[in-house]
# Entry
Amino acid sequence: MHSILKSTCTTFRTYVTILQKPRILLGLGNLSDNPGATKQRKRVGRGPASGHGKTCGRGQKGQKARGGNGKPRRGFEGGQTSISVAFPKRGFHNRNEKTYAPLNLDRLQHWINTGRIDPSQTITMKHLLDTRCVHGVKDGVKLLADGSHYFKTPIKIEVARASQTAIKAIEKAGGNITCRYYNRLALRATIKPEKFWKIPKFAAPVKAKDIEWYSNYKNRGYLSKKLAGLPVTQANAQMAARAI
Amino acid sequence: LPVYPPFLQAWYRDFKTNLPLGIMDVERQVFGAPIRKDILQRAVIWQRDCLRQGTHSTKNRSEVSGTSKKWAPQKGRGKARVGSHRAPHWRGGGVAHGPRPRSHDTDLPRQVQELALRSALATKFAQNQLVIVQDVHLETEKTKDLKAILEKNAWDPLAKDRKQGHSILILTKDHKNNLDLASRNLQKVHALTAEEILDAGDVYNIMGHETLIMDKEATEILQTALKPK
# Structure
């Protein structure tokens, strides 16, 4: 029954649906963990047969063989400017930061002059990207006013953000500007509509600061109640209906 | 969905006469749990770690009584240089890296504790070392009465071959005064309650006693508490 003559291995596959009786009576005397569950720790300096005797894995003499740490301080590189001194920590990384691709009015005017952009249609960020007026739309395009006194064409433009001077210049030329909130999905649907079998509804801004910014007529935000001549786009129509 | 029946059958007996009184259903997930001797080992080690007193202590070279004066001049003696008279390599010196009073408690995840208890009960059930009785009722608190009952019933078939009696653990729902008093002087017999076993995750006592006698109420308590959610 409890003969040790038979194999002392009592490992067997355990299944919930199969009731098994251990081959040898299990008691406190023959419990053991699975092979590989534990590993003996390394003890140095306990004789040559251990493989870690005498010099205890430190080699011969020198600073690193001595007691204590073996170096003057952590990160010390022998006197060479250490990496932490050469490249110190600085600041923090804001994951929610938005960077806008800048577009100045002189560049836009040049594109119109050369016929790359058609001012009779509403100019969206897709047009700007496709005609390489901006080379990349990061979190949106921000319209800026460098060379604004050269800007004379009336246009209807819809961008993510715009500076005050740019707004003034566009309206002085007789045009119309709207600033709209784009999240990642909305931006993707604007500049790559071929990737969507159906253009999704564009989301409203979530953060209080964004809602405030886009509700402000000063910024020509699309949520502001004063905005009358909105460029007609699918998403904007829904927004306008709700805002007004 | 379980494809196996959720219950196993177990005899329940009369405590005094060991006669089978009937068959009851016990939870398969508790008494038919996988028998994991690796988990039983982990649970027993954890339990015994927590039982350790940890009151071992030695004096190091600063604590051994004696002066810190330099014991001999650095040079000129023709002998090894010496500092403190109580350094570890000196006779009467302090112990280097000796034991300090500390706690040996370790942690075992609660679900592993529960699995270990289920596994222990299943082991006892599978090895015919589990006896479920109707009720453990003793008329008197006399040890000789309890001893007579246990010897007569001979729950361990190898009792004749052993020099001493086999170890028995009796589990009840509440502490029974007569049982506690009667078993106190019997070295191999212990009486515990089911709640104590559950609170402590006491696999050591279950595996450490050869026969486990449970009354029906204790079985119910263990089943409901240990059944996996």
Chain A touches chain B through 21 residues (CB under 8 Å). The CA atoms of residues 56 and 207 of chain A lie 60 Å apart.
